[in-house]
Amino acid sequence: MNPALNADTPPPPPPKPSSHDVSRNGTPQTNPALPVTPSQAYQEGYQSQDRVRAQSVNAAQSPAPGNLPRPPTVEEGWLPDVVRDKSTTDLQTILQNPSLISALSSNHPSHTAHQQHLESLLKYNRDLATHLLDLQSQLSDSRASTESLLLTHQSLEVSWRKKQTEMDAALAPWSPRALYQRLSASISEQEAICQAVEESFLEDDHHGSVTEKGVADWVRRVRAEAGRLAARREAKARWDEGRVGGWR
């Protein structure tokens, strides 16, 4: 045994045979499809909802103004036909009435086109507001579902930690450290048994008479106990050399 090794600490486990081993040449290398987890299914469903929302938003884009007629400028001096023959006094009266001015301005061809464009913009804003309310409702549902999944995950995590602690406690007697300590203790115990068997024949009072059968039984017992001791020492030596269970 290497003196640098601790008697209570087993050496690191040996490496397993590589995939080029003769016994593994005929093993097919297949990668079966992994099952879809609930979190992946939820994420895929959420992404599909995002795609549907993006398509609906793209479909409800703001209407383009197009080739709208330009409103008249001051330099053009446009006037409705109904006021062209009015006197200066009548024109001053009209200018003092904003409602009448607004009604007269609607006679220009650009008024109807701009009015329709404004109505389309208002409709677009209403559609966006409706879509925003739908997104708010979906966000609330997603948030509630996420909170539920988070609580479930936390509960499962606590349960798993408890089970893992119980599993570690149950497997502690079969851990490499515990098995190595038991093997070392069994060697010391077997050495004591061998010494006791060897001394038992010499310490017994045979009154000067020793039969051949008694000697044969004692020799057979000594050999049996020595064989057990040699087997345990060999097992410990194989472990120390990294050849546990025949692995090299």
Automatic annotation (TrEMBL):
<feature type="compositionally biased region" description="Polar residues">
    <location>
        <begin position="24"/>
        <end position="61"/>
    </location>
</feature>
<feature type="domain" description="VPS37 C-terminal">
    <location>
        <begin position="157"/>
        <end position="248"/>
    </location>
</feature>
<dbReference type="GO" id="GO:0043162">
    <property type="term" value="P:ubiquitin-dependent protein catabolic process via the multivesicular body sorting pathway"/>
</dbReference>
<dbReference type="GO" id="GO:0006612">
    <property type="term" value="P:protein targeting to membrane"/>
</dbReference>
<feature type="region of interest" description="Disordered">
    <location>
        <begin position="1"/>
        <end position="77"/>
    </location>
</feature>
<dbReference type="GO" id="GO:0006623">
    <property type="term" value="P:protein targeting to vacuole"/>
</dbReference>
<comment type="similarity">
    <text>Belongs to the VPS37 family.</text>
</comment>
<dbReference type="InterPro" id="IPR037202">
    <property type="entry name" value="ESCRT_assembly_dom"/>
</dbReference>
<keyword id="KW-0967">Endosome</keyword>
<keyword id="KW-0653">Protein transport</keyword>
<keyword id="KW-0813">Transport</keyword>
<protein>
    <recommendedName>
        <fullName>VPS37 C-terminal domain-containing protein</fullName>
    </recommendedName>
</protein>
<dbReference type="Pfam" id="PF07200">
    <property type="entry name" value="Mod_r"/>
</dbReference>
<dbReference type="InterPro" id="IPR009851">
    <property type="entry name" value="Mod_r"/>
</dbReference>
<dbReference type="GO" id="GO:0000813">
    <property type="term" value="C:ESCRT I complex"/>
</dbReference>
